[in-house]
Design goal:
mainly beta; Jelly Rolls; four-stranded antiparallel β-sheet
């Protein structure tokens, strides 16, 4: 059985605001998001962030929570492809890595 080594598909620094954004909306190429099965997100500065994956849209008061200076890893292509992020207030600076395993 072959052992696969994770590889970085794409990385960027992004600003998320109070307008919900997908990974493509934040600047990633659609083709890169589609072939990603893991995403690593760090909230570098600004405000806390909310997220949903799937059909729901996060808001300042709904969605899963990432505190400022927090990190999150999401694994699963369906979850990554449906990811939407929003800052609770103002904006937040994020480091985001798309990873293929």
């Amino acid at each position: 059985m072959a052992i696969s080594t994770p590889s970085i598909i794409s990385e960027l620094l992004a600003t998320v605001t109070t307008t919900p954004s997908t990974l493509v909306g934040l600047g990633f190429a659609s083709a890169d998001v589609i072939r990603t099965d893991t995403v690593q997100i760090s909230v570098n500065s600004g405000n806390d962030v909310r997220y949903w994956y799937g059909t729901l849209t996060p808001s300042a008061s709904s969605g899963h929570f990432i505190p400022v200076y927090g990190e999150l890893t999401i694994t699963g292509a369906n979850l990554v492809n449906g990811l939407t992020l929003v800052a609770e207030t103002g904006s937040s600076s994020l480091s985001i890595s798309l990873i293929s395993v």
